[in-house]
Specification:
The protein is an alpha+beta fold and 698 residues long. It folds into 5 domains: 15-109, no CATH class; 115-311, no CATH class; 326-413, no CATH class; 438-444 and 575-696, Beta Barrel (Elongation Factor Tu (Ef-tu), domain 3); 449-564. A hairpin with a 4-residue loop joins strand 2 (29-33) and strand 3 (38-42). It is elongated. The two termini are 61 Å apart. Its main location: membrane. It is found in: Membrane. Keywords: Membrane, Transmembrane, Transmembrane helix. One of its GO terms (cellular component) is membrane.
Length: 698
């Protein structure tokens, strides 16, 4: 507005209160808008301007402030105050332009029911009660809980309770695990509800004890999860930082006191329902107070405590503004005016805090997006997932990029911008251009064929033909076993066969043989069958090689004249060398049979050239080589299921031939295969497309 124009009138219902002293020692004031229950902290210059608002003109106010105080103001400074009041809707509309401005603000906040639902289903409030009168009635009965004596007694109860829990720590942790059931979760829910009622009442009663008004209490819905809330905005009226901290921290302190007494009760009570309830209440309040309420990254109690402790109202917004300014200066060096000046350590801390919030919220909103996707039916879940990603993740980036676009002319003129865009272009090239054709996969270098030689029957080692390291071919005799009992039985059977044949030949001239001729024939057949079986078993005692290979792992019990039991391993044969690699599903289309590769062993050892000879087209159901599992130091994440190692992600077996000397001990490593070139962006887009197609059922 022009310096000579008359100033608009302030709204009549506004109230001015004294505020706390600022960091620089200057006084502050609070302007209260009772209709919206909002507070605005005013600096000394703004207060001096408002106290002379009756002068009616910017120039008159600036001259008066400069003459009567140590401040030096100009008419433009007063105009800035007018603009602040107009943006905050603190001025009384006096003409059609003001009415149009208010209507424009109102229309800007109006949305259709669908848009409102999409933007507010994550968080909205439902006020339930106006508790101010009955809080006044119950305050005298609970004032003793805020006294120093009660806090000291509670601290003592906490110390004793933790001591008792420490003595029964095993029972305490076991009880915690036992509560992971439907009944346990229900009891946790009831305990959490009770703790939150105590939490909110503590906020309200502490505010009342300092003479503040508590207009509403109700329930808010965070991702459709009910959460109680209390409106204690009037805590801004308190000039004492300690009192504001007490109002903001009353909920956490009450939950911690509840946890302390519940912990003590658990340690003292006998086993039963009461002890179980005490455990549930203690565990719930400890977790909700320390893990959730103390977080300064969302607008929970921890955030308001941080604001009061640092005396920095609107901490998030101020930290975001400073971090965005710092980012633009680092990237472009625009030389813009800093939004707010702090001492160097606080300056760096506020910027780091803003980045921590952004990272935390990015993680949180991605998690919420996955939650709403799985919570609703598939079509609605996909739509809400897109809304989450678009509104809470992508939108802040586009808003900042829009600011860069508006400053494009200034950005193009700075030297730092050229460096930034050069680095950015390099990163884009790295992401878009398919530089690498390498496909990496965990692999195991091992023998191609492997056979363990067992003793098929009990026997004495009569001859050992080979020794460790000998190369053999199929059919080569490895060792000969002798079984004296089998040889004796075979000799007895031979004699019996001779006797039976004599009896058959004597049937024609001996009546005694003729009468039982049929029985003799049957017995002869049976004995000859037994001889055939014994001969076959005896032939098995001659051990031969069934593959071409090298003799390894010769058992120390293999000595001439030594008895050896059945199915007892005597030695092993290994033949050739191959590589088995396990390729991720995304990389499988990039490789083909005949592709060259390089095997890099773990630890010492040189790389070995290899060639892909086979690719499985179905994912492995269980790992045949446990050395490659994470549980045993490998790189494949797998879990035990029915005594088998089942990979957590789909992997496909790829077989490769490899040159060089044969190995006798498996070697773990990585195989690098030449495959189709694909950029990082291309891989990401393919993965996203695969997920979308899979989830939509296409």
């Amino acid at each position: 507005m022009s310096a000579g124009a008359a100033l608009p009138a302030l709204r009549d219902e506004l109230a001015l209160h004294s505020g706390p002293v600022g960091h620089d020692g200057a006084p502050t004031w609070l302007l209260h808008d009772p209709l919206r229950n909002q507070f605005f902290r005013l600096t000394w210059p703004v207060f001096e301007v408002l106290s002379r608002w009756h002068l009616g003109h910017s120039e008159a106010i600036a001259l008066s402030v400069s003459a009567e105080t140590t401040l030096a103001l100009e008419a433009d400074d007063v105009s800035d105050v007018v603009e602040f009041l107009a943006r905050s809707q603190l001025l009384k509309p006096s003409g059609s332009r003001d009415v149009e401005r208010l209507l424009a603000i109102h229309d800007a906040h109006k949305t259709g029911w669908l848009t409102w639902a999409l933007h507010h289903y994550l968080f909205f409030r439902v006020p339930l009660v106006r508790p101010d009168q009955w809080l006044d009635a119950i305050l005298p009965f609970v004032e003793w809980m805020g006294r120093r004596s009660f806090r000291l007694i509670t601290l003592g109860a906490l110390v004793v309770g933790l001591f008792l829990v420490g003595r029964q720590w095993g029972i305490f942790t076991t009880t915690f695990v036992d509560h992971f059931s439907m009944e346990g979760l229900a009891s946790f829910g009831i305990a959490l509800g009770f703790a939150k009622i105590v939490h909110e009442l503590s906020h309200a009663l502490t505010a009342k004890s300092y003479g503040l008004r508590v207009p509403t209490m109700g329930v808010a819905f965070l991702v459709l999860m009910p959460v109680l809330y209390t409106d204690v905005n009037e805590a801004w009226k308190l000039t004492s930082r300690r009192q504001r901290l007490m109002v903001g921290g009353a909920g956490i302190l009450s939950e911690l006191a509840l946890a302390a007494w519940a912990t003590l009760a658990w340690g003292l009570l006998p086993d039963g329902t009461a002890k179980s309830l005490a455990f549930t209440l203690a565990a719930t309040t400890w977790i909700s107070s320390l893990a959730i309420n103390l977080s300064p990254f969302m607008r929970f109690d921890g955030y308001f405590l941080a604001m009061d402790a640092l005396d920095m109202p609107n901490l998030h917004n101020r930290a975001f503004a400073l971090a965005r300014w710092h980012l633009r200066e680092v990237l472009f060096g625009l030389g813009e005016t800093i939004p707010e000046c702090f001492p160097p350590r606080i300056h760096a801390g506020v910027i780091a805090f803003a980045w921590a919030i952004w990272i935390y919220r990015l993680t949180l909103f991605l998690g919420i997006a996955m939650l709403v996707y799985h919570f609703f039916i598939k079509v609605v879940g996909v739509m809400l997932f897109c809304v989450e990603i678009g509104w809470f993740v992508a939108r802040p980036f586009f808003v900042e990029f829009n600011q860069w676009w508006e400053k494009a002319r200034a950005i193009r003129t700075t030297k730092r911008s050229r460096i930034t865009f050069g680095l950015f272009s390099g990163l884009v090239l790295l992401a878009v251009v398919p530089w690498s054709s390498r496909v990496s996969a965990p692999a195991l270098l091992k023998a191609k064929d492997h056979m363990v030689v067992y003793a098929p029957l009990p026997g004495v080692i009569g001859e050992l033909v080979v020794k460790a390291g000998d190369k053999v071919t199929i059919g080569t005799v490895l060792a000969r076993l002798d079984n004296p009992d089998m040889a004796l039985r075979l000799a007895q059977i031979e004699r019996r066969i001779g006797v039976l044949k004599y009896e058959i030949e004597a049937v024609g001239f001996d009546d005694s043989f003729r009468s039982r001729a049929q029985a003799i024939v049957q017995e002869l057949g049976s004995v000859m069958a037994e001889r055939t079986a014994l001969t076959r078993d005896q032939s098995r005692l001659m051990l031969t090689a069934s593959i071409d290979g090298t003799v390894i792992d010769l058992s120390p019990v293999v000595q001439l004249g030594q008895w050896i039991g059945p199915r007892e391993p005597m030695m092993a044969l290994r033949s050739g060398t191959q590589i088995e690699a396990y390729v991720a599903e995304d990389d499988l289309p990039r490789i083909a049979v005949g592709a060259s590769a390089t095997f890099i062993p773990e630890g010492s050892g040189g790389a070995r050239s290899a060639t892909v000879i086979g690719i499985d087209r179905t994912a492995v159901k269980s790992l045949a080589d446990p050395e490659l599992a994470v549980l045993y130091g490998g790189a494949i994440s797998a879990r035990f299921d029915n005594k088998s190692l089942v990979p957590d992600l789909a992997v496909y077996r790829v077989r490769l031939t490899v040159g060089g000397e044969d190995i006798f001990t498996p070697v773990r490593g990585q195989v690098l295969m030449n495959g189709e070139r694909r950029s990082l962006v291309g891989r990401v887009l393919r993965s996203v497309a695969a997920v979308v197609i899979r989830e939509w059922g296409a």
